[in-house]
Amino acid sequence: MARDGLERPIVPIWVETGHGKRALIDALVDMGSDVTLFPLSLNDDLRIDLSGVAETPVGSPLGPAATYRAYSLFLELRRPSDVFRWRTPVGFVPRLMSYGILGTRGCFEYFNVRYHASEHWLEIEPAGLLPQ
């Protein structure tokens, strides 16, 4: 998906609570990110209570960047004829984000990924059974 004149591997992903509240968000496939993160504003649709959840710092190559609150949700990636659904902890960040971030923990620990930027394709395949 092109944003700001740059092509990025961005995919739509469904996020769902155990109580059936769902939201669709665009997310950046970021193999360099340790954690899967979503903006706290997504909670407007999901209505989960994060008030008692401890904040965890998330770093970047530039140093500490923010904090997040972890919560276990179902994530769902779809493509023609396939639906990949798994339960995993993700982080909610109290920052403005243009899109979510699919990182190693919470997402790519369960998938094999191939990305070819110049040819504009992304391939995501489960690496085994997905946690339910």
Structure report:
The chain has one helix at 43-46; strands at residues 2-3, 6-7, 10-16, 22-29, 37-39, 55-60, 63-79, 82-93, 100-102, 111-116, 121-126. With 132 residues, it is mainly beta. The strands form three sheets. Strands 3, 4, 5, 6, 7, 8 and 9 form a seven-stranded mixed β-sheet that branches. A two-stranded antiparallel sheet has the order 1-2. Strands 10-11 form a two-stranded antiparallel sheet. Strand 7 and strand 8 form a beta hairpin. The longest helix is centred in the middle third of the chain and has 4 residues, at 43-46.
What would a concise description of this structure say?
With 132 residues, this protein is mostly beta strands. The protein has one helix spanning 43-46; strands at residues 2-3, 6-7, 10-16, 22-29, 37-39, 55-60, 63-79, 82-93, 100-102, 111-116, 121-126.
Write the layout of secondary structure elements.
Elements: E1 2-3, E2 6-7, E3 10-16, E4 22-29, E5 37-39, H1 43-46, E6 55-60, E7 63-79, E8 82-93, E9 100-102, E10 111-116, E11 121-126
Parallel strand pairs: 4-9, 5-8
Antiparallel strand pairs: 1-2, 3-4, 3-7, 6-7, 7-8, 10-11
Structural class: mainly beta
Low-confidence stretches: none
Give the termini distance in whole angstroms: 29 Å
Rg calculated over all Cα atoms: 15 Å
Strand percentage, roughly? over 45%
